[in-house]
Amino acid sequence: xGNETVRQLILGLLCGGLALSTMSxxxxxQDPALKTIQIYDLMTxxxxxxxxxxxxxxxxxxxxxxxxxxxxxxxxxPAASVDFPAVQLPGNAVLTFRIGIDQAVWDKPGDGVDFxxxxxxxxxxxxxxxxxxxxxxxxxxxxxxxxERITLAAFHDEEVHIKLVTAPGxxxxxxxxxxxxxxxxxxxxxxxxxxxx
Length: 197
Known about the structure:
Elements: H1 3-14, E1 35-41, H2 42-45, E2 50-52, E3 59-66, E4 69-76, E5 80-83, E6 87-88, E7 94-101, E8 113-120, E9 126-134, E10 146-151, E11 159-168, E12 179-192
Antiparallel strand pairs: 1-12, 2-5, 3-4, 4-12, 5-11, 6-11, 7-10, 7-12, 8-9, 8-11
């Protein structure tokens, strides 16, 4: 099998098909616009995480409805936290996620939820990198998924734990605090694809 045949076979596999003569996908050599992304998915790591919850029912994986949009989510009823397994961070790491309060309880009592994210270093020092208070029961501007992107550049080359935390609102009212996190993940890399010769 010649080099050109091997190259076509590999390109065919990359494009999702084995028919070499009818390939419609082309990989451009050295195109800086083509990127590969490595992601550390916190929801996949959840079974290995350490949870601190008042009751087992206060944490669950379920679909959540926020602003008429359903997303797979982690319910984390205050006061609660989840400490995820350690991950080594490159210099350009970014934490992304969405937060909200399930709209099934927007007409119930309560004073909202404070969402926080901590980065826990190897010496157990916890650094708060995010905090936001949501109260869709009283504030219409909070009645949708809130998307966040947090740079983790300050922790370059460190092995850290991400900790998600929920707390009650300012009146310390825990009623119907159905706080949800959707798609929490760390984007670890942003590099170009290999060049085919």
